[in-house]
Amino acid sequence: MTGVTNEVEPTRPQLLLVVGAGRSGTSTVAGALARLGMSVPQPEVPADDSNPRGFYEPQWVVDFHEALLTGAGVRTNDVRPRALELAQEHAAAETAVVRLTEWLTSSTAAQDLVVKDPRTFWFHRLWRDSAAAAGLDIAFLTMLRHPAEVARSRETHYLVGQSAELRRARETANVASWCHALLVTERATRGDRRAFVSYVDLMSDWRTALRHADRSLGLGVTRDVTDAPHAIDDFIDSSLHRSKVSWDEMSVHSVVRDLAEELWSAAEGLVADPEDGVVLDLLDDLHQRYDALYGLASDLTMDQRTVDAAERRQQVRRLRQQVQRLECENARLAARPSQRARAWLARFRPRR
Question: How far, in whole angstroms, is CA 240 from its chain's centroid?
């Protein structure tokens, strides 16, 4: 099976969704695509210290996704296999498709859009339906970065000085969420126009990396790119690739680490051909293994979760009792000035 190649000029406005785990280079590739003429809907999430060159995320989309995830009880980096079903059920039950279609229609103005948000992978179906309703042709670009780099980049500062137990738990959860996000994204986008871009390739030679992706996507955004100086040359700084691949400095559980390494090796094959049948079969097997591993972990931790739930219920009861005591004390204090005022007035009441 060969990858999709589209040499025909697009006849309708294009919607390119940049997906992939957070800290995998999604902001970098979205910024590069903006410099190639695609439009990032405004206003954008402002840059900050964690990403001084900008996120290239439409603020409306971030708020929209966060509200949907909150309503569904799903976290951005949720590792539960059922989380996808919960997110999609909630999006289908709401008027989400109407709202998203209206936003896309108002944002297009015959422009090709690039929309990036790490939460997008929970809502592929919603985006596909809304794009069709808005008259847009949809495509997906998934960024691939080694899971050790992603996990380290996410919480490098947070984990400094933390206990070994907490570091192992957080780093293992981060790697598991990378696995889940990639597995869900890959399976959801099968049959769509899509491309996978290696973060290392993008940082070392963006021209080659994006030209190759563009051949699968059929956007035509790189047709005028030459070896002459380009604005992207100043935007993509290879020195930003500070977190190098290494499991040695991490304490990820070996079972999750090995699964992530297998998944990474398989996913690299999608860069060359996003529809490689051998790779897709391997990814299906890894998806089943991930789900089984999560099920095993859930079974083994059932007692601990029961204890944790009981402790939370006790905490809630104690907090409610504390609130009741405070309310009673507040009422008593509020009544005291009135009693004093009546006593003071009684001193000046005329005697009969």
Answer: 21
